[in-house]
Amino acid sequence: MKKEIVNELKTRFPALSRNEGTARAIAAAFAMQRDPTVKEIAAVKTAVSEAVTNSIDHGYRDREGFVEMTLRLFSDGTLAVHIKDKGAGIENVGEAMRPTFTTAPAEEEHSGLGFTIMESFTDKLRVRSAVGRGTDVYMEIKLKGKLPPDTEDTRDA
Amino acid sequence: MLKIYNDGGRITAAITGDIDHHAARELRSALDEIIFSSRPDTLILDLEGVGFMDSSGVGLVLGRMKAVKAYGGRLILKNVGSDTAEVLRLSGLSRLIAENRTAAKN
Ligand SMILES: Nc1ncnc2c1ncn2[C@@H]1O[C@H](COP(=O)(O)OP(=O)(O)OP(=O)(O)O)[C@@H](O)[C@H]1O
Ligand SMILES: [Mg+2]
């Protein structure tokens, strides 16, 4: 199944919590070109919010830095979301992805469900991380909406 | 944003806007102020005005549920949208939903 990139958008922003909403809005706006369903938009916003929040809240907990979000739309309707930070990193990714696992102190009331929610709202989730170097979250969400007519020719048969 | 309706034992807190990590901090302290000053038998979180909620919202709801339970009260959720309901379902919190916005509309 060969697919081409139809469109691409790269953003980079400082690790400020108010940028969580900004990142969601950007990703939702980017996905709009595929005429997605309300449910698909909610999936995009939720998955982006979880990953960006983790970078800001855990990756850059004790340091300043930038989060990079790259959005790619493929000819078959796949939206690929890539969220990267150069923060603290994760010691054991498998353990971190387990439901209710959190390293945040109890008074912050983290449910430890961020990865579980990402998993549920995406078709593909891959997490790479190295302690002291940062974390890289790659997600794919299949948008079944129609491409606008002017890009119809780049669609898979 | 938060609007409070108090009728003695029952307090309704109507939340508007996105419930994410950024918004959760302020919402938490505002809700805790109500909980600890009024100790309502029932705290109703009305999510009619909430268009988005992620795991930070789950933490917020869980934390308030525990705070209310600690003195024998209960917390219920009202007017929960379908996407928020899905996040709550994944978190095992569906039982807190009293009246569902989408169910009422369909
Ligand atoms: N970008 C990141 N940088 C460093 N650590 C991370 C990152 N993302 C996740 N983690 C680690 O993985 C754990 C689990 O993440 P997850 O999002 O599932 O839960 P949480 O963020 O702790 O809680 P919640 O998302 O429910 O508020 C975090 O507690 C943290 O230790
Ligand atoms: Mg998280």
Structure description:
The complex is a heterodimer of chains A (157) and B (106). Chain A has a single domain (5-148), classed as 2-Layer Sandwich (Heat Shock Protein 90). Chain A contains four helices and five strands; from the N terminus they run E-H-H-E-E-H-H-E-E. Chain A has helices spanning 19-31, 38-59, 93-96, 114-121, and strands spanning 5-14, 66-74, 78-85, 124-130, 134-142. Chain A has a five-stranded antiparallel sheet, with helices on one face. Chain A is globular and about 40 Å long. Chain B has four helices and five strands, in the order E-E-H-E-H-E-H-E-H. Chain B has one domain (2-96): Transcription Regulator spoIIAA, CATH 3.30.750. Chain B is globular. Chain B is of the alpha/beta class and 106 residues long. Chain A binds chain B through residues 17-18, 20-21, 24, 39, 42, 45-46, 49-50, 53, 56-57, 108-114, 116-117, 120, and chain B through 18, 20-22, 28, 52, 54-56, 58-60, 62-63, 82-83, 86-87, 90-91. The structure holds adenosine-5'-triphosphate and magnesium ion. Magnesium ion binds at residues 50, 53-54, 114 of chain A.
Question: Would you summarize the structure shown here?
Answer:
Chain A has 157 residues and is an alpha+beta fold.
Strand order of the largest sheet of chain B: 1-2-3-4-5
Radius of gyration of chain A: 16 Å
Percent strand of chain B: 25-35%
Spatial strand order of the main sheet of chain A? 1-2-3-5-4
In DSSP terms, counting alpha (H) and pi (I) runs of 4 or more, how many helices of chain A? Answer: 4
When the domains of chain A are counted, the total is 1
Query: How is the main sheet of chain B built?
Result: 5 strands, mixed
Q: What is the CATH superfamily label of chain A?
A: Histidine kinase-like ATPase, C-terminal domain
